[in-house]
Amino acid sequence: MSNRLALERSPYLLQHKDNPVDWYPWGEAAFEKARREDKPVFLSIGYATCHWCHVMARESFENPQIAAVLNRDYVPVKVDREERPDVDSVYMEVCTALNGSGGWPLTVVMTPEGRPFFAGTYLPPVNRGGRVGLLPLLGALADRWRHDRASLMKTGAEITDYLRREAASAESKAEEAMLHKAAEQLAASFDKEYGGFGVSPKFPAPQNLLFLLRLSKLRGDKSLRQMAEFTMQQMYRGGIFVLPLQHGSGVARAAL
């Protein structure tokens, strides 16, 4: 039997219509159910051509055991980032604030009021390769929701307050110290052998490349540009081809 996503138009959401997970599309109905049943919301964001989104779907969202836990203890919500970039941008900021990086599939757990207290990207079904598994994570968070909710609510409030402060500061001119710190963090996580930032699995992060290119031009620092250019070269050699957009925007055009 198909779930609620069978009524959606998004090709990505329709790919999940036959999951045993009782998915809701993004909307008030999901959050009203979460408030009524006193459950956290499990948000999964992806897109149709995302490789790791399909891996996580096959490993976890088609798994009856994991689906049963999601349906029992959470209100599962599926979002197509190409259909709702506004929702994606908000929760990608949450993931980046908590982990220093983001990617897809984007996995967020939040209160019925929309305050996130966990965010990550791809999660294997069980603990594997040093990565926490989705099934044990769901169990641990559900247990804390029942027995230590105050700590989750505190985390959610702190993250929400942090993002509000960030949004307010973004309206003013960025301070040089902040730019310097961001550049230092990217340089510290730069993979000199394969390009990109952080450890595998990596996801294309055009905002990092654009930042480095612009800051390199502003400062005349060639090393920042070299990190961005090397990353794009390695992406190309690895089979990811970034084409120039019609109006001259995007990573490829910015690198010219």
Short description:
This protein has 256 residues and is of the alpha/beta class. The protein has eleven helices and five strands; from the N terminus they run H-E-H-E-H-H-E-H-E-E-H-H-H-H-H-H.
Can you describe what's shown?
By secondary structure, the protein is α/β, with parallel strands linked by helices. It has helices at 11-14, 28-37, 51-61, 64-73, 85-99, 134-147, 149-170, 176-189, 206-219, 222-237, 251-254; strands spanning 24-25, 41-46, 75-80, 106-110, 116-120. It has a 5-stranded mixed β-sheet, sandwiched between helices. A hairpin with a 5-residue loop joins strand 4 and strand 5 (116-120). Helix 4 (64-73) packs parallel to helix 6, helix 6 (134-147) crosses helix 7 and helix 9 (206-219) packs antiparallel against helix 10. The model is unreliable at 247-256 (pLDDT under 50).
Keywords:
256 residues, alpha/beta, 5-stranded mixed β-sheet, 5 strands, globular, disordered C terminus
Secondary-structure map:
Blueprint: H1 11-14, E1 24-25, H2 28-37, E2 41-46, H3 51-61, H4 64-73, E3 75-80, H5 85-99, E4 106-110, E5 116-120, H6 134-147, H7 149-170, H8 176-189, H9 206-219, H10 222-237, H11 251-254
Parallel strand pairs: 1-3, 2-3
Antiparallel strand pairs: 2-4, 4-5
Helix pairs in contact: 4-6, 6-7, 9-10
Count of individual helical segments? 11
Terminal CA distance: 51 Å
- Outline the biggest β-sheet: 5 strands, mixed
Order of helices and strands: HEHEHHEHEEHHHHHH
* Uncertain segments: 247-256
Please indicate the percent range of residues in DSSP E strands (runs of 2 or more): 5-15%
- Percent in helix: 40-55%
